[in-house]
Amino acid sequence: MSRSYSSIVLVGLLSAFSLLTFDLYQPSLSYITGYFETTHNLSQLTLSIYLFFFGVTQLIWGPLIDHFGRRRLLPGSLYLAAFASLICAFAPNIYILIFGRALQGVALCCANLVSFASSRDFEDSQERAKVLSYISMIVSASPIVAPVIGSVIFTYLGWQANFIVMAVLAIVLMFQSKKGLCESPFWSKPKQPFLLKNVMQSYKEILYIPSLWFGSFIMMFSFAAVMLSVMNSSYLIIDQLGFSPLGFGIIFIFNGLNIIIGNYLGIGLRKYFNMGTTIYLGCGFIVTGGVAMLVYTLYYEFNLIALSFALISNLGISVCAPPTMSLTLTEFKENTGIALAFINTVRMFGTSLLSMFMAHLLMQNLNALPVGLILTGLATGYCTWHFNNVTKETTEATEMNAQTV
């Protein structure tokens, strides 16, 4: 009997929805600052607070998914996402908006975890990496269309309408998941109740796996390289370079197209190089983009051409993230949710801190962006060296055990 797999389009959309909540209302972020008569830092907090809670609550959703199953938990999380979106839409002040964004982060990290966990249904690591690349391509549709759609909605219906659209999309995805989402082939009905001590024991056991740590740090630093420019894009493009919200949306399209190109490039590179080598190549893209941006800015000035070099850096995560995630998940079957919770907590928590720090530095000097790209690229490369060593040792040990048996 052939195994049933979840719809790749559906799991891609589930993951894309978490990014959509970033891109859809970014064109109106400067207006929101004035609307609530608040500061740029507080309005920017609506982005970073989402990332923070999106990262931290992974630790809760991961073991819940492993225990109760993805099909049972996803609908409730999407209902919560719809409710949080409505809180944002009708927020009377910036603090309620920040609270609504935090609640969105709590709810949507479940959908994101379910999406990535579905890739573990594939046993072959190369096939798993390809599925992750396809999911990323679907996710990339968000930065292509969402800023443009968001700017149009904002222009004609107001900033609140963007959050109402998010609520509607959450309900639509909830109904679609009943048709296209399959349960993990490694999941079985729990024989004992969900206990905190068992969850703590499960986390304690995986903490001693080196590949999990280094894989998580690769995901964190490479994702941070992208988010350094994405999270500050409205400030850079609208406030610093003087483009309109619609202009911002059109410019942002190139970022989404770039992600698609990067994933196709990654799939192609993995046909000729092993996955460890392609992770190194991804690190190279991150550093190259940062160096090019810094050199151009020092010789000329910070303008749209300088910012465009961030696209080179953004190729890096598209090339290195799928093989990193695929290799990291190799050792996890029944506990995929917990492993992903750990990976994404490190990734999102670290990225939120780095992004908040970068937003502060950018207020002082725009060169902080290229320097940040260079440093995150180098950090990704350092972690890749350790990651490739430990995964190689694990593979060799597994092969020796198989031969012994």
Named CATH architecture: Up-down Bundle
Reported for the largest beta sheet, the result is: none
Oligomeric grouping of the chains: single chain
Q: What is the count of distinct domains?
A: 1
Shape type: globular
Reading the helices and strands in chain order gives HHHHHHHHHHHHHHHHHH
Corresponding CATH superfamily: MFS general substrate transporter like domains
CATH topology term: Growth Hormone, Chain: A
> Can you count the helices?
18
The pLDDT mean sits at 84
Helix content: over 70%
Approximately what portion of the residues adopt beta-strand conformation? under 5%
The rounded distance between the terminal residues' Cα atoms is 28 Å
Rg estimate, integer Å = 21 Å
Strands, total number: 0
Q: Please identify the structural class as seen in this structure.
A: mainly alpha
Q: Name the poorly predicted regions.
A: 398-403
